[in-house]
Amino acid sequence: MDVNKLMAELEAKHPGEKEFLQAVHEVLESVKEVYDKNPKFEKHKIIERIVEPDRVFIFKVPWADDQGNIHVNIGYRVQFNGAIGPYKGGIRFHPSVTLSSLKFLGFEQTFKNALTTLPMGGGKGGSDFNAKGRSDNEIMRFCQSFMLELWKHIGPETDVPAGDIGVGAREVGYMYGMYKKLAGDHTGVFTGKGLNWGGSLIRPEATGFGAVYFVTHMLKTRGIDIKGKTVSISGFGNVAWGAALKATELGAKVVAISGPDGYIYDEAGISGEKIDYMLELRHSNQDIVAPYAQKFPGSKFFAGKKPWEVKVDIALPCAIQNELNGDDAAMLVKNGVTCVGEVSNMGCTPEAIETFIKAKILFGPGKAVNAGGVATSGLEMSQNSLKMSWTREEVDMRLKQIMENIHTACVDHGTEKDGYINYVKGANIAGFMKVANTMCDLGLIM
Ligand code: 2IT
């Protein structure tokens, strides 16, 4: 495989799609060895086919604010790869959303979903809508307008969206409600639904819980217990919240969380009501963490800074793509970090990943570490199909098992000659092999 040539061709076809090209480049570098060993992949032109989405929907989303002013946002759904199951992946509402960012997310989702062991293809959607400062009614109207177009393209066996940045239970409720009204049926076309209307226990916590389960497996390969370790987390939304809950429950001490405005350092540890308060901050629609420092004396707010300058054992980026760069990584390594679990999708830049791998620290990439979220969405779909709901214990047990299986797959495909586990390579190869082999089996349909 000639990675440079493939990348040059892709860049010419999709100029300026920076995040998408970044995500593809990483996967190609990881899989070139297994690709070259399996001539059937080249015969079926798997790379040329796997890097293009099956299809993309782009539509306008007009809505009126509380003063009656009309706004127009752009809505997207990228149905990236449906080889192994219905398209599955979240909806992101964030001003940074572009076709490029959703293509990178859909591409990543394809391999992540393959890793979960459940039959789900990859998709992603969203809008450049900014919820900051918006009222609940404005958010409802926006979600309804978004769904007025999207509902035609989704369905329980074709494409099943979920939440992502800016889309939690509230937004899923408004979108699912509109879908139900338009489609006239009650099929579980969304995951992340409320418990009263088809949702699954543990789904809100699942991404964070799964990430911490994965981290404990990584630590175990070096005989390290998470108990007593210090943890820094970026973000303060649903994913960061779940990670803080589980890390604390397992005896670690979370000392930092962050927002777009800066980070909070709390030496006493962010536990109990402080973790609950993260949800309050998110629901305020202000997108800031600074109020934490006023509410909890002893903690400190660092305006405009990232949490990676704090000395910790474990760092968990839980916010957004490319939030941790080469300088941040060098700082973490200098401060003796043991393990970095990338919980956000592509949270680390290529320079950061290179720094971690060179330093031989434990580094888990997003598509493995955060796969517990979509895996539990898969479990929600199973429960909906069965018209049943499982207990907390049952869902958690399955989630734990899935995270362990993903870790094993990474070890199997990513262990290098000197024994170092390259989880980036392991996750990319394991996910790729499943999708690529399926594409060969199914004939030239996509
Ligand atoms: O990035 C992700 O895996 C998600 N936002 C969750 C997707 C899902 O369908 O649960």
SSE inventory with pairings:
Blueprint: H1 3-13, H2 18-37, H3 39-43, H4 46-50, E1 55-64, E2 70-81, E3 87-93, H5 99-115, E4 121-127, H6 136-150, E5 159-162, H7 169-183, H8 203-220, E6 230-233, H9 238-249, E7 253-259, E8 262-265, H10 273-283, H11 291-295, E9 300-303, E10 314-316, H12 326-334, E11 339-341, H13 350-358, E12 362-364, H14 366-369, H15 371-386, H16 392-414, H17 423-442
Helix pairs in contact: 1-2, 2-5, 2-17, 5-17, 6-7, 8-9, 8-15, 8-16, 9-10, 12-13, 15-16, 16-17
The structure holds (2Z)-2-iminopentanedioic acid (2IT).
Question: Would you give an account of this structure?
Answer:
By secondary structure, this protein is of the alpha/beta class. It has 3 domains: 1-52 and 429-446, Glutamate Dehydrogenase, Chain A, domain 3; 54-186, Leucine Dehydrogenase, chain A, domain 1 (Rossmann fold); 206-369, Rossmann fold (3-Layer(aba) Sandwich). The chain has helices at residues 3-13, 18-37, 39-43, 46-50, 99-115, 136-150, 169-183, 203-220, 238-249, 273-283, 291-295, 326-334, 350-358, 366-369, 371-386, 392-414, 423-442, and strands spanning 55-64, 70-81, 87-93, 121-127, 159-162, 230-233, 253-259, 262-265, 300-303, 314-316, 339-341, 362-364. Strands 9-8-7-6-10-11-12 form a 7-stranded mixed beta sheet, with helices on both faces. Helix 13 links the parallel strand 11 (339-341) and strand 12 (362-364). Helix 2 crosses helix 17 (423-442) and helix 8 crosses helix 9. The longest helix has 23 residues, at 392-414. It is globular and about 65 Å long. The model has no long low-confidence stretch (mean pLDDT 97). It binds (2Z)-2-iminopentanedioic acid. Residues 88-90, 109, 162, 164, 191, 345, 370, 373-374, 377 line the site of (2Z)-2-iminopentanedioic acid. The site of (2Z)-2-iminopentanedioic acid has 12 residues, from strand 3 and helix 15.
